[in-house]
Write a structure and sequence with these properties.
- The chain is mainly beta.
- It contains 4 helices and 36 strands.
- The strands form 11 sheets. It has a 5-stranded mixed beta sheet with strand order 3-9-8-5-6. A 5-stranded mixed beta sheet has the order 12-36-35-14-33, with no helix packed on it. It has a 5-stranded mixed beta sheet with strand order 22-27-30-25-26, with no helix packed on it.
- A hairpin with a 5-residue loop joins strand 5 and strand 6.
- The longest helix has 18 residues.
Length: about 550
């Protein structure tokens, strides 16, 4: 079958000078409050493919029982530190795994996968975990430029092999040579002396020349002295920022900031700024992107501005940028991998998508006490008349010429102001709400009891729902800002299903298991189907010991036609 012809000439012609470098990154000894160990399924990819990874989090003292962080930030970056893809992942019991897609239009070159927690940003990029890999784009002739500078701040990249005596695992296959579609059986076991020594373990089976045998190593550095403040994410995702005067940029302390999550997964919370004008919100574990509206409470005779911290690291940083090259075996492997990608595009592949299930999300305040449907009543000219003339639990009163809302309940709710929402966005200016045309309102939900959320207490809730979901045409407060916030990664990791006799096998990663159970003294096994593409394949178990030391154990097999 003729595939690629001229499109793939790049792989056959690349002969750029310089060694093909892959290995473990290390730096001078130091300390950081947390460190990440990062593993990937391969070290060579075709543009557009997913990188599957697993991460293990440790405290600097080698423990993992009292970790602070619950969110891992993962990015694909260039050696110049430019981020080309980024996602967030939940950490459970100091472990996480996921996948991140290489953009299809990314040019051929050397890139890095880097991972860090919010807590690690106190020490800067030197404390992050990095994994170097190569990307091949067969449809583009250009190659990512190299600065030929190996003297980067993170030290050097070197090929490091661990002594066999330090291996906490033994691994072997049932045969050395297989035919396509044969059943392959991998067995693995811990020696008696190494039982219960493994903290985390992952497995990858891929073409031998697409896997580096070098181990990842977290970098460490003494904590920096930067003025930036990074709150540890002890419960999950967070949004952090600052409130200042608009012109002087002077921080404004002890003021309320309202946060509303718009659309699916709608929610509301409030926080007060600290002595430095900073605010912090702990966010729910939603998936994908949501619009968030932030607004400060009204401060008379003062223009204010809300600043939101970048959730991903934007500190300038340079990584080693050696000249890109492929060895002859790597070139052949990359050609086969690219052919698999092209073949797959001609067939409708059957895939299993492992996604975080979406839950049906109701209003954050639950079931309202009463609901007022405006269309059930005769049309009135103003919204205030609906509240005051109808048997509603909400009344409009005036204080010094200014309108305000009062909720009538079984207890005295006048001590606290009610929380007033329009399409689940908090609006602290009753005059703007009362100016809305009633024809734009679908219904009004009322909670007639004290409500506590985010450390703030409200004298009930008035939730106004528009017919078109457009805030009923109200002018939202000028001090407010919209932020398109990225919550947790959707993590649609594609695992290709079993192939039929008429369907070609297009797997480039034959098997990936990010969280393998340590076997102890018992022999454990994995069984899978041999690929169609002939060649040498590598079985690699990588992991971290309970003492915080990385290890890699491998075995090889061959597939013949």
């Amino acid at each position: 079958m003729k595939i690629f012809k001229q499109q793939f000439f790049l792989l056959l012609l690349i002969a750029i000078a310089g060694p093909a470098i892959a290995g473990r990154i290390f730096s001078k000894p130091g300390t950081t409050e947390e460190k990440v160990f990062l593993f990937t399924d391969r070290s060579i990819y075709i543009a557009g493919e997913q990188i599957h990874f697993s991460g293990t989090l440790f405290n600097a003292d080698g423990t993992y029982d009292s970790l602070l962080s619950r969110i891992l930030y993962c990015e694909i970056v260039t050696p110049e530190g430019n981020s080309i893809a980024s996602k967030k992942y939940r950490i459970n019991h100091a472990l996480t795994d996921g996948c991140i897609t290489i953009p299809e239009d990314q040019i051929t070159g050397i890139y890095y996968l880097r991972a860090y927690t919010r807590q690690m940003r106190k020490s800067g990029p030197l404390s992050y975990a990095y994994k170097q890999f190569k990307v091949i784009n067969p449809y583009r002739n250009d190659v990512l430029a190299s600065d030929n500078n190996h003297n980067s701040p993170i030290g050097e990249i070197a090929q490091i092999q661990e002594p066999e005596l330090n291996k906490p695992l033994s691994v072997f296959t049932d045969k050395a040579v297989y035919s396509p579609r044969d059943t392959i059986e991998i067995s693995y076991q811990q020696p008696n002396s190494k039982a219960n020594a493994i903290r985390s373990l992952c497995l990858s089976v891929a073409p031998a020349n697409s896997l580096s045998s070098a181990l990842p190593q977290p970098l460490t550095k003494e904590p920096g002295t930067a003025d930036a403040i990074y709150y540890p994410e002890t419960r999950g995702l967070s949004l952090v920022g600052k409130l200042t005067e608009a012109s002087s940029l002077t921080p404004i302390p002890d003021k309320k900031i309202n946060l509303s999550i718009i659309g699916e997964g709608r929610d509301f919370m409030a926080a007060r700024t600290d002595s430095l004008g900073r605010f912090f919100f702990a966010l729910p574990d939603y998936v994908g992107s949501r619009d968030i509206f932030l607004c400060a409470e009204k401060i008379p005779a003062m223009a204010v501005k809300i600043w939101v911290d970048n959730d991903f690291c934007s500190a300038p940083f340079h990584l080693p940028s050696p000249p890109f090259s492929l060895t002859e075996p790597e070139r052949l492997t990359a050609l086969n991998m690219a052919q698999n990608i092209q073949i797959e595009s001609h067939f409708k592949s059957i895939v299993i998508e492992n996604t975080i299930p979406q839950k049906e999300v109701n209003s954050f305040y639950g079931k309202p006490t009463t609901i007022l449907y405006l269309d059930k009543y005769i049309q009135l000219p103003t919204l205030e008349e609906y509240f005051n003339e109808l048997p509603s639990q909400v009344k409009v009163r005036k204080r010094k010429g200014e309108s305000y809302f009062v909720i009538q309940g079984s207890t005295d709710l006048s001590f606290y102001d009610p929380l007033v929402l329009v399409d689940w966005v908090a609006v602290d200016e009753p005059s703007k709400i009362l100016a809305v045309s009633p024809q734009n309102i679908s219904h009004i939900e009322v909670v007639n009891e004290d409500y506590v959320k985010g450390g703030q207490t409200y004298g009930g809730i008035i939730s106004i729902i528009s017919k078109k979901g457009n805030f009923a045409g109200i002018d939202l407060p000028a001090t407010g800002i919209f932020v398109n916030y990225r919550f947790l990664a959707e993590n649609k990791c594609v695992e290709k299903a079993a192939y039929t006799a008429l369907q070609p096998d297009t797997r480039n990663t034959i098997l990936w298991k990010p969280d393998v159970r340590a076997p102890g003294n018992k022999i454990e096994k994995f069984v899978f189907i041999a690929p169609d593409t002939p060649g040498k394949y590598k079985v690699v178990f990588e992991g971290v010991s309970k003492e915080g030391e990385t290890f890699s154990v491998s075995s090889e097999f061959e597939v013949n036609n």
